[in-house]
Amino acid sequence: MRGNFRTILATAAFLACGASPPPAASSQASAAAGNSRLGASVAPAASPKLDAAAIAKARFGNDAAWYEQRIPFFESADPKIDAVYYYRWGLFRAHQRDLGAQGYVTTEFADDVDWQREPYASLNDASGFHIAEGRWLNDRRFTDDYVNFMYEGGNDRHFTDHMADSVWGRYLVDGDRAAVLAHLKTMRHIYRLWDEKFDFTKGLYFVEPLLDATEYTVSSIDASGGKDGFRGGDSFRPSVNSYMFANARALSRMAEMAGDTAMAREYADRAQALRTRVLADLWSPKLGHFVDRYQVDNEHVKYWDQIRNRELVGYLPWMFDLVPDDAKYSQAWAHLLDPASLGGKAGMRTVEQNYEYYMRQYRYLGTAPECQWNGPIWPYQTTQVLTGMANLLDHYDEHGPVTRSDYMRLLRQYTQMHYQGEGRSARLDLEEDYHPETGKPIVGLDRSHHYFHSGYLDLVMTGLVGIRPRADDVLEVNPLLPAANDAQALGWFHIERVPYHGHEVSVTWDADGRRYGRKGLTIAVDGAEVAHRGDLGRIEVPLARKANAPVLRETNLAVQLVRGNFPKASASSGTEAEKLHDGIDGRAWFYPELPNGWDSAAGASEQWYAVDFGKSVTLGATELAFFADGGKFAAPRKVRIEAWRDGRWQIVAAPSAAPLANGVTRLSWTPVTAERIRVAMTPAGGKAIRLAELKAFAR
């Protein structure tokens, strides 16, 4: 797929890694001469340095401490991209649920939904997005815990997923061999469980669209004769077959790494067989698009017939590099850019607008439209298509009609989707789906606020910034930005503290040198510049990997997963069972649109919230997360922590400083043994107190 491109192999990088340049380095470097600086030919300029503490405070307020040492920091010439970049880190943070001894999982919906896996609130369909985003965090615990949970019984295959492939994608960033191989046997087992959805005569997987997390598609609606489409419509889909192709390829690569040549060969063969069948059977010459074929056979549709309209799901094979580098296939991208087909005014339509049942509303919950895939924009599939487009632009010669300008235009269109409202009143709140002409949210249910079944950070990292993670000891960067005279150009950006193979990487682009003092693209590793070129283009830097910092874990003792079980909460007021549970459910966020936590009564009287562990435990620290909205709720002006010992409450911590509002206050003391802990709170100005979460630790 990859054609000729100019590459820089920076001499300084070899020296930094303690190795000598290979013989080819000088000739490759010469090809880029005139546009690039190699080695010490020009003295390195000082690398830009962002004020992480100030940015974290400005973006996250009192919750800044969580982000300051964890996230890569970014700035660009587009303030909306910057704002959404940091919003998405906040979204990631809000969706971390602490399960206690089982560590963290990442949730799709911030609060409970009926179809989640109980009692954890996990859903496997979004796992690929969660891991792709989380792999760029400097604290590896969250994604590591999540992967461990999913492969230690958490993946119930409720929906289709490409989790094995995403675990491989995490390895491409962190280079941790032990972590990527830790669950190989389980991954293989889960892969084979999908045989129940494999048609051995056709060599393809099939699935009901609902269980592909895409209800009301062409196949399910047409299989009902246009009457419904929530259930039914089992089909051989580009999605599930692309996922299984990618998972098989990942398993083959992991097996090869583990030295299991038989398994590596088996899964490489499985991946190739799927590729062959997708290209032969799911490509529609008539539509010039990858489409579903029916697995169901009834009075409305016939087994093996192809569906009659193009859908956005037809681009998923590019997300996993399943498609050959051939103009026959790349021309399919014209449909995405066509306003009469999939190119909606405000975003990507999930089906083209000439479909008979385009945007027909079938389901309602009260007066709010339900989720459908017969036209609305979904951030979920928008992310997948942009990932596929980035692959097409990065390492295919045949781009079809797609350009870097198109990528940036669609990325900005997706960026805008995160905003609700206009002007100064606009706020950041990503919802489930949107109208393709107006860009307004469709579902509008409480559960939809700050929805995490999509990606954005990974699109910035691998697309805009252009870090293309690899399994070998090479750092490759190729920003997908158009030329400076293009309407979608980006004049400058800088990102730093990006984790890669145990190092910290920064990438800087300055189109004219006025922002950072030097024109061009600059790469630094661990604070030292390793490569520069004077224009946009690909840079490859040999980079020997280092060991990652160890994953540090402490166990939150105060998590009630099953309502009614220990630990149990009680309080001075606000004693509704669900509210008491919310204070120790392992979830903490500060979104006003999504109430979460225990609420006290308003007034001047001291309030308390207590947790009974049901047994003696060692307690040495607590974390308190208080919500404030400038109106009804305020953080208390004073707190003290008490432990139940020797038949009475005894003070273990009584700080003089007030706890944080919309942030986390950690208090520590000399560890004690107790069965219960209590936080006593003095209200501020008679306002009610919302304790979003209480955590307790041994020390």
Question: How would you characterize the overall build of this protein?
Answer:
The chain is α+β, with helices and mostly antiparallel strands. The protein has 5 domains: 11-54 and 465-542, no CATH class; 92-182, no CATH class; 184-308, no CATH class; 318-458, no CATH class; 568-697, Jelly Rolls, CATH 2.60.120. Strands 21, 22, 23, 24, 25, 26 and 27 form a 7-stranded antiparallel beta sheet that branches. Strands 1-19-18-17-16-2 form a 6-stranded antiparallel beta sheet. The protein has a two-stranded antiparallel ribbon with strand order 3-4. β16 and β17 form a beta hairpin.
What's the quick description here?
The protein has 699 residues and is an alpha+beta fold. Strands 21, 22, 23, 24, 25, 26 and 27 form a seven-stranded antiparallel beta sheet that branches. Strands 1-19-18-17-16-2 form a six-stranded antiparallel beta sheet. Strands 3-4 form a two-stranded antiparallel ribbon.
